[in-house]
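input
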Amino acid sequence: MARIVISEFMDERAVAQLAAAHEVLYDPLLVDDMPRLITEAQGADVLIVRNRTQVRNALLSALDRCKVIGRLGVGLDNIDVASYEARGIRVIPASGANAQSVAEYVMTSAMVLLRGIYASTEVVAAGQWPRPALSDGRETAGQTLGIIGFGAIGQTTARLAQALGMKVIAFDAMLAADATVYAQTGVRCVNLDALLAAADVVTLHVPLVDTTRSLFNAARIATMKPGAILINTSRGHIVDLPAVVAALRAGRLGGAAIDVFDVEPLQASDWLQDCPRLLLTPHVSGLSVEANERVSFMIADKILEHLR
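output
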């Protein structure tokens, strides 16, 4: 019987599935008590985390018995994967399990920002009638969506966008231009510069690595199509948030939806207040009831299979 430590929230039915066969410590608040987490990790054969648990340094040293790390999500920048794999510890992400949730977040954000009318409740309820000011929104159909990173999430987003009548182009540095996935999905492969020049909406689905860190700095944002919308559900360090805010205030960008930040939780910031056409959400694009179920059971199944 293995000992499984789960440091962040997981569907409790999936936890019960694990507990039926192994000893399980499930404490969603353990991530906020690093000294205790390190102590518990010393006796763990399996560690299951989300994105907040930093599986490196002292925690890495404590995992003497660990055989496998389950990641309730897809990003691995909070895990020192190379060090664990060098020690023979397998790292298992929940690849593809939250793709639908993220794709729906992207399309919802794009539609809200393109139309630009959904923040009028307060003024309409107060008896104002800003109809002329809200009559120049853009329809989703006919717009061009540029997807950067064409894995499971990017491909799911493309299908939703095409169903709404959008043209879809994509760039993925890890895929050949003639990769079959482009023909299979009906998406045109372009280089990054061409994508930014043509896309009315740009959505990011890339991991945080050296080549993507600060990918969207002020200079690159300046090359985007005027009035374009930027959506980031990848990692905070990929996008320079102050540069996004400056472009929004200058009217250079038509909107932005940011779900991930350099430091989470995001600290209170005066410079973010009253920024036009900016949507901020607390790293929830991949979270829904259904996505949590899929992610949790996928990891539970893979952990059980690995331990057999």
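quick obs: The two ends are 10 Å apart (CA to CA).
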